[in-house]
Amino acid sequence: MRMGRSGNEPLRARSALRMRLALAAFGLVWAIAGTVLFADLGRTGWAVFFGVLALAAGTDLVVIVRHIRQGAHWQPGRDVPPYEPLRKR
């Protein structure tokens, strides 16, 4: 069953893909650094944890880049406001 709109949520919601891309890249760098650091210190459990985290961040990067490359066909363009303009009374 599909629910109707409950408030003033946007009709055409957009994701901040470039922000997600930057955060995923930042997370990937730190996860790789953590993997290398803990592997050098002999902390296998932490190294595996950060390795899995790096894998998740890398996967997220691939998905984000794919969505960016799909372009405006799948995402509304910059000229589409996220909310309907206010009507003057």
Describe the structure in your own words:
The longest helix has 27 residues. The chain has a domain of 57 residues. By secondary structure, it is mainly alpha-helical. 7% of the residues are buried. Helix 1 runs antiparallel to helix 2.
Strand and helix layout:
Layout: H1 17-41, H2 44-70
Helix pairs in contact: 1-2
Give a quick precis of the structure.
The protein is mainly alpha-helical and 89 residues long. Helix content is 58%, strand content 0%.
Supply the key terms.
mainly alpha, 2 helices, elongated, 89 residues
Structural class: mainly alpha
Largest sheet: none
Number of strands: 0
Number of helices: 2
Q: Taking Cα atoms only, what radius of gyration do you get, to the nearest Å?
A: 20 Å
Principal-axis shape: elongated
The average pLDDT is: 83
Question: Considering DSSP H and I runs of 4 or more, what fraction of the residues is helical?
Answer: 55-70%
